[in-house]
């Protein structure tokens, strides 16, 4: 943790709008907030005599240091706060649990021969993005239309490097790609087509309609009536898009209606969509709150997170309660939409009735799902709390478990699985090939895995990188008893870290019967949620290690068996290993299937089949 002088830092807070980030002792961001005046807002957290909820007091007790980012306006602070909350998912912020990702059309203009693709994330690259769109089906239809109109590629071939290496694909054969992969169009002409695509995606349809009409008339004059009909149909599709756009621009009755139902920290929010005076759809969303809040507070948080990812923003939002920061949120939504957006709280009439209906729906969904929510909470956070209480630890969020897999010492591998608040985080799992140990020595292998894992984390922390290795666990769970625990404790102590280690002790049936912790075996309630979670973690770390070991064994077997076949060098061996996951799968293949692979021919395929039959 960085050196931090709280009194000095509080005095240096500026009288400017901005965003502040609260960090705990492990350098994790636990809260992100915005402020009109940073000095006034941040100081409030450290003043005595202010009444706060128990959870906010707990959060303040965990703050080890803070940082802030100064911006020019409160609106900029709102946007930055929203982005940082989405990026870091701080524990004490209210989070929209089931926020959606909407699709975009991506034009890879940074490439020599750009492609048109569907994507669900905007990256900081040289591509141009259009959208987001409400439905991926509408994007697929748009990309198909672009292929027919402009003959732009959608493949992933690396051009110009791969020009001429393979024959053109089916899209070229049916007239929907100009085949730059085969050199059949110059880079300049292809770029001109891409510029027309960009203009089209910017909703400038006049040139396209003029071009299609010209081609349709020319085809008619040549009596090519099928071609003329194709151009006519394409014109109809472009005209439909044009009319859709004009309709969007002239909508008079468009609003979203938002209401909520809450019980404890569980909140459901209903959103009704009214377009052209008709109710056309609805959605339900769950909020995860660090503490029970008033509707004005959590509805304000919901609006910021929900509309940040929405492809369409209506001109009016009707709500049961005026949200916090209403005027600021209206300003932000107006800027996003490009036209005025109003947040209203109707009191009488049809609008008020629709808000009441949305609230009834939210209450119904909450009643139906509260049991499911409670059950999920018990098997995740509740189970973690049981384990923490058994071990006498104040709080556990992140748990890491490790296992070693080998057969007679062959290709020993280690696995690391991560559970956060009782749920697996598969994106943070890691694999290790054992490098320093020969033979079946699980203790030495585990020492290597743990040492590499935490040394890697320490290095990345120095470089201020963010990864699974830089996030340290609140508890390490070893798949074994005293021996495994002591190995882990020695590694942790040697590296100067302070992380508790427990071992999952097995009975004669190889099932967990208790936890080994601080040189004592602690019995566990085998009918409790904590025991069920430990079993899931144990099964998961085994599965992950065994699957990794199996994949390595298969590749090694294929590799060793192929070494002696005439005509098989490194390049062809890699291709076979990529296509066939084991030597048995390759043995079942016929010569035609093998010969069809890149870089193969019939002679080599016959040699492989012959060799595998004899061995």
Domain count: 5
- What composes the largest sheet? 8 strands, mixed
**Global Rg:** 31 Å
Give the overall shape, derived from the CA principal axes: globular
CATH fold type of the largest domain:
Nucleotidyltransferase, domain 5
How far is the first residue's CA from the last residue's CA?
60 Å
Which percent range describes the beta-strand content? 15-25%
Can you count the beta strands?
A: 20
Which structural class fits the helix and strand makeup?
alpha+beta
Q: Give me the number of helical elements.
A: 19
Query: CATH top level of the largest domain?
Result: Alpha Beta
Question: What is the CATH-assigned architecture of the largest domain?
Answer: 2-Layer Sandwich
The level of helicity is 40-55%
- The CATH superfamily of the largest domain is UvrC, RNAse H endonuclease domain
What does the model show?
The protein is of the alpha+beta class. The chain folds into 5 domains: 6-93, GIY-YIG endonuclease (3-Layer(aba) Sandwich); 104-202, no CATH class; 254-369, 2-Layer Sandwich (Nucleotidyltransferase, domain 5), CATH 3.30.420.10; 398-552, UvrC, RNAse H endonuclease domain (Nucleotidyltransferase, domain 5, 2-Layer Sandwich), CATH 3.30.420.340; 563-614, DNA polymerase, domain 1. It contains 19 helices and 20 strands. The strands form 4 sheets. Strands 13, 14, 15, 16, 17, 18, 19 and 20 form an 8-stranded mixed sheet that branches. A 6-stranded mixed sheet has the order 4-10-9-8-11-12. A 3-stranded antiparallel sheet has the order 2-1-3. Helix 8 (206-221) packs antiparallel against helix 9 (225-249) and helix 13 runs parallel beside helix 14 (482-494).
